[in-house]
Amino acid sequence: MTDWSHRRIAVTGAGGGIGAEISAGLARLGAQVIALDLHQPVGLPASVRTGVLDVTSEQAVTDLVHKLYDSDTTAVDLVNCAGIVENDIAAEDMSTAQFDAVLSVNLRGVFLCCREFGRQLLARGGGSIVNISSMSGNHVVNHPQRQCAYNTSKAGVSALTRSLAAEWGASGVRVNAVAPGYVDTPLNSLKPDKHERWLADTVLGRFAQPAEVFGAVRYLLSDEASFCCGTELLIDGGFSLR
Ligand SMILES: NC(=O)c1ccc[n+]([C@@H]2O[C@H](COP(=O)([O-])OP(=O)(O)OC[C@H]3O[C@@H](n4cnc5c(N)ncnc54)[C@H](O)[C@@H]3O)[C@@H](O)[C@H]2O)c1
């Protein structure tokens, strides 16, 4: 069984629906959680350490990782949960800046955090990283859901996860991903007109709750997942069975 009390785990995007649930859930298990977001995360259990981190800033990510190891050399595992989505922009109308903005948070940010946290884990002989990808990296719906930057970024997160897993697995650093379907969070509140269609497309006929994503993250972080290397757990309520 996993001894969570010896684990330090950083969560990005911890002010959002899924990231807050992951942070609170890990804290309830007894882990030392560092909850990070663009703005100071609020409403988390008192044991959670919070901080501001823009995952697109190489300097900020580097500084944060050094700060985490300043007075404590315990390895810090990582959950990359920060993410944004563009709202229904046709590809032919999407500006370069709009495309870059999504890729910058969802893919570059995941790479920067994996690299900086990963270097420290490699130096300590092991650790675990879980990236939140999405079913949208694989399943693109055509009714239409115009979000080519988001879909591309999430396919990138899946490929990055497998690439890092292959490079780092033998050194004891496990890199895995969780690919959620539609989850009941603020990310989806942008598109209320789409909800009826999404639920019709999902076999279970409902949104996932963030706690159902947390369960998969907890598993991949745990010692019970010690043979998972480049695994992506799809948590989509049967959406992909259509
Ligand atoms: N909600 C869904 O249906 C769903 C489905 C599949 C995947 N996901 C993924 O799950 C993750 C969490 O999404 P959510 O539903 O909780 O969304 P959310 O909007 O509730 O939370 C996302 C969080 O990311 C933070 N963030 C944005 N840019 C950032 C940056 N530059 N640096 C640091 N933090 C930043 C936001 O401030 C926000 O708190 C995202 O990666 C998202 O793509 C969500």
If you had to describe this structure to a student in words, what would you say it looks like?
With 242 residues, the chain is an alpha/beta fold. It has a single domain (4-241), classed as Rossmann fold, CATH 3.40.50. It has helices at residues 17-29, 58-68, 96-123, 148-168, 186-189, 195-201, 210-221, and strands at 8-11, 32-37, 49-52, 76-80, 127-132, 173-180, 232-235. Strands 3-2-1-4-5-6-7 form a 7-stranded parallel sheet, sandwiched between helices. β1, α1 and β2 (32-37) form a beta-alpha-beta unit. α1 crosses α7, α2 packs parallel to α3 and α3 runs parallel beside α4.
CATH superfamily: NAD(P)-binding Rossmann-like Domain
Bound molecules: nicotinamide-adenine-dinucleotide
Largest sheet at a glance? 7 strands, parallel
Low-confidence stretches: none
Topology at a glance:
Layout: E1 8-11, H1 17-29, E2 32-37, E3 49-52, H2 58-68, E4 76-80, H3 96-123, E5 127-132, H4 148-168, E6 173-180, H5 186-189, H6 195-201, H7 210-221, E7 232-235
The site of nicotinamide-adenine-dinucleotide has 28 residues, from helix 1, helix 3 and helix 5.
